[in-house]
Write a structure and sequence with these properties.
It is built from 2 helices and 20 strands. It is mostly beta strands and 315 residues long. Strands 1-20-19-18 form a 4-stranded antiparallel sheet, with no helix packed on it. It has a 4-stranded antiparallel sheet with strand order 2-3-4-5, with no helix packed on it. Strand 4 and strand 5 form a beta hairpin. The longest helix has 5 residues. The N and C termini lie close together (7 Å). InterPro entries: Integrin_alpha_N, Kptn. One of its GO terms (biological process) is actin filament organization. GO terms for molecular function: actin filament binding.
Length: 315
């Protein structure tokens, strides 16, 4: 039997949304979670090991430049561009009403030196937050996501994908020659994302080598209904993770009805094994080692705050 115990919780001054949390994995230091609220507040959450070997949670507000008064943060994403150090890159989309009928929208990209490949890879988050390159948007942004642009005979490049209100997914690439970021045609590299005829609420991309996809031959006809969630309302987020450490992934769903539902594959069927109630709608879920002890924690963003939970396994 498995159980989820609360390790830490911190409140938000204003609510976020389903795009308001991202993880930042470090090579040389503690892993972090970045959480944004709609009213311009961005927080970093991490754990520090004290001399008495106790873990102390540290939550601090980060002051990012070029987020003007009155602006709202729509989405946030981040990645580490370095394989050997901490070269963090953080993307934030914002929206600000300039007049009664006009709205300004931007993608702000923060990195030390204000461009990938420059600056000190060991720079702090506070220093990175002061170096910004802005991309003006002609559409309302939704999900901000980064992925690898795999190309033959060249190093892999990380690009931003941004879904918009114009029924398109936009690819934003770094222009190292001009020290800027700009939009590039997406159809050459992601033809399946070129003509979607709607607003993409969420984007996930996985890269596989020599993998056989049943969906290529069977289409979308072999779906599975998760039994046990009939009494739950709108699903806002999901996560696939092996939270009970048995070598097999579980399915986690976060609901507007303030629950996290965890399904486990048992006897060739998905069974609801945990239904955990929170104090507000669940906006986002991620699974990472934020305590840096080699064991991952479940991090849940709700409308009111961030919950860090540890999985306790009873044998």
């Amino acid at each position: 039997m498995n159980n989820l115990t609360d390790a830490h919780w911190f409140p938000l001054t204003s609510q976020g949304n389903i795009y308001s949390m991202t993880k930042l994995c470090s090579i040389n230091g503690p892993n972090k979670v970045l959480v944004a609220s709609l009213k311009r507040k961005i927080y970093s959450c991490e754990y520090h090991l004290m001399p008495n070997l106790h873990l102390r949670p540290l939550v601090k507000e980060l002051l990012f430049t070029y987020i003007p008064s009155g602006a709202e943060i729509i989405s946030i994403d981040a990645y580490n561009k370095s394989d050997s150090g901490d070269g963090f890159v953080i993307g934030i989309t914002i929206l600000k009403a300039s007049t009664d009928t006009s709205v300004e929208r931007y993608l702000n990209i923060y990195t030390e030196g204000a461009i990938d490949g420059e600056g000190d890879e060991g720079s702090s988050i506070e220093a990175i937050a002061q170096n910004c390159l802005m991309v003006e948007l002609a559409y309302t942004p939704y999900h901000l996501y980064h992925t690898i642009l795999a190309q033959q005979n060249t190093p892999n490049e990380v690009v931003w994908l941004l879904s918009g209100s114009d029924y398109k997914i936009h690819m934003i690439r770094e222009d190292k020659l001009n020290h800027s970021y700009s939009e590039s045609p997406i159809e050459k590299y992601f033809p399946e994302l070129h003509d979607i005829h709607g607003i993409a609420i969420w984007i996930n991309i996985y890269h596989y080598d020599n993998y056989n996809w049943d969906i290529l031959s069977n289409g979308m006809n072999e779906d599975i209904t998760l039994n046990g969630n009939e009494t739950s309302d709108c699903i806002l987020c999901s996560c696939i993770a092996d939270i009970n450490m048995d070598g097999q992934n579980e399915i986690l769903l976060g609901t507007y009805g303030q629950e996290v539902l965890i399904f486990c594959f048992i006897n060739n069927t998905w069974e609801l094994i945990i239904r955990k109630l929170f104090d507000a709608p669940v906006h986002s879920i991620c699974y990472m080692d934020i305590t840096n002890d080699g064991i991952k924690e479940l991090i849940v963003l709700t409308q009111r705050g961030v919950h860090i939970l540890q999985v306790v396994i009873f044998i």
